[in-house]
Amino acid sequence: MEKLTFYAVSAPEKLDRIGSYLADRLSRDVVRHRTGYVLIAMEALDQLLMACHSQSIKPFVESFLHMVAKLLESGEPKLQVLGTNSFVKFANIEEDTPSYHRRYDFFVSRFSAMCHSYHSDPETRTEIRIAGIRGIQGVVRKTVNDELRATIWEPQHMDKIVPSLLFNMQKIEEVDSRIGPPPSPSAADKEENPAVLAENCFRELLGRASFGNMNNAVRPVFAHLDHHKLWDPNEFAVHCFKIIMYSIQAQYSHHVIQEILGHLDACKKDSPRVRAGIIQVLLEAVAIAAKGSIGPTVLEVFNTLLKHLRLSVEFEANDLQGGSIGSVNLNTSSKDSDEKIVQNAIIQTIGFFGSNLPDYQRSEIMMFIMGKVPVFGTSTHTLDISQLGDLGTRRIQIMLLRSLLMVTSGYKAKTIVTALPGSFLDPLLSPSLMEDYELRQLVLEVMHNLMDRHDNRAKLRGIRIIPDVADLKIKREKICRQDTSFMKKNGQQLYRHIYLGCKEEDNVQKNYELLYTSLALITIELANEEVVIDLIRLAIALQDSAIINEDNLSMFHRCGIMALVAAYLNFVSQMIAVPAFCQHVSKVIEIRTMDAPYFLPEHIFRDKCMLPKSLEKHDKNLYFLTNKIAESLGGSGYSVERLSVPYVPQVTDEDRLSRRKSIVDTVSIQVDILPNSIPSDDVVSNTEEITFEALKKAIDTSGMEEQEKEKRRLVIEKFQKAPFEEIAAQCESKANLLHDRLAQILELTIR
């Protein structure tokens, strides 16, 4: 062997003939099963290959590869392993110039077949599989760095290589959750365990993938997981995509996410558990990608997830109506719960993705999701809800608001205008999202996420009478000019939402707790002296509505409102620290503790609380009195003139046209609404409905100016927001009425 090597190195032009001779001898020996001679010939080929690095080695390599192919084709496991070992040695040699005519198609096919070996002897089977994996690793190393000859990345090769590696990786044990990258295998494990060796090879393959080759390497993974039904359960799928996300270059992460989204679209009619498995894989991928570059796929991720959320709700609604999706007739209740798994997985993914985005992107996503929520009067949302029905629409509203709640969690804006722009606040506070107690809870929680810029919400949790608010150590800053401007523009909208939310007949304890927190957060974050007065007016109006009970609420709800008002006035009185105001509130609470504990939150929200039969016979000392509050605040320099004007929520067009009962019934003064028929003997028409409240306002001259301002604001708002057809119809009716009046006056004058 030494003489042969010396001769080959001295006369490299003879290498071609040496290789041909050895190849011929080895071919005959393989056919005749002369294993000893085969081993000697391969040893000679290996040593010559390692010793010679001249340009003349190219023809010799062809003879060498021809012999390796002969060994791999033989049915002898020992020879297959021998051929593989020789190929791996060859693969580790760095050639000076690449050989563009050389192809490795046969080796890819043969090594992939060896990875799937089912030899009867377990040890031999493991040995062949390890040889197959090492062979694939050799092919990858030999070809992957030649950019001009990237044949290994072609789909026909990747469709063999990737499934072969995954097939062997399935033996690996489940790894930890997404806290960190999967552990790297040790050197000993790489040599003995096919699963660990396959995983190592898979990592190496993905690590070498470039921008143009990424998709070809990832798509066979989906085909393998689909074929072997590995989405449910999806531990192996999650493990695979963790390896993919940690192995590829960070800037290509969005490619993998796009592929997962595309596969989710392709599987939209599969079983709920399969879809949930894919979404959970997406969550894991997003969790890793969110730490680096996510690329341009942010809106695409949310758009696809929201589309599948709608589909899931649609399937669920169809099941509830007795329809069956697909050819298999499953139990409705189990399928319903499976769809909920899908929905929860989508919401969790949206929330996790959203919470990892920078603030500027998160505000865009908030607007994007809010634009999808079906609310009255907006045609901007692109979720098709035509097939959902009322129940499905409500379900999709709840799901989208839960998604929004996850995205807004932890969001901190410097000004409230940034967090709650008009285009976001208007649909959020729409009466369409007040038709269900759960919807109202979600809306309030979203508002709390955006309002609470100093993390005070946890200190306000639960509705209660706080003995000393100072103990809570509430953080607050001076109200900035932008926040003051926001309250001037949108304050009435917020008050109206809270006022109407308190008077809903399906409220539960959590609703009252969230309403109380809303009032407290507005006081902390947004309240100057003017806003404090408005909030106190709102609280007194709620107390009056509970006493008068125009909405026929149950006694529990009336007492719940009274308890809410008590808790809030106790809080605000201590926040503004006016001693006389605090004294009045404390005195009322003390009397209630003795005579009417059901007016306090600690009692009314306790199980088996005794309720009164009526509120009409109660002593006025049990109520918070406007004149006492005005007197106490006036002494401390507050402008209390507006306290004497009862709070009235603004009327919107949605209230008139939506399916809910119109709040026009509860508003005392209705501006710019003419009665349909007017008696002919009336000479003067009044646009106000004459009620007790209207008369009280007319007598109270101090509030006339405020009343006029409110009228003008309502008229302007009506012309800004009302549909053109409605305004035209009213103007026409007014013109006809005016014409009739003039005719009547002219006729009377002639007489």
Automatic annotation (TrEMBL):
Pfam families: EFR3_ARM (PF21052). It comes from the Eukaryota. Belongs to the EFR3 family. PANTHER family: PROTEIN EFR3 HOMOLOG A (PTHR12444:SF1), PROTEIN EFR3 HOMOLOG CMP44E (PTHR12444). This is Protein EFR3 homolog A isoform X2.
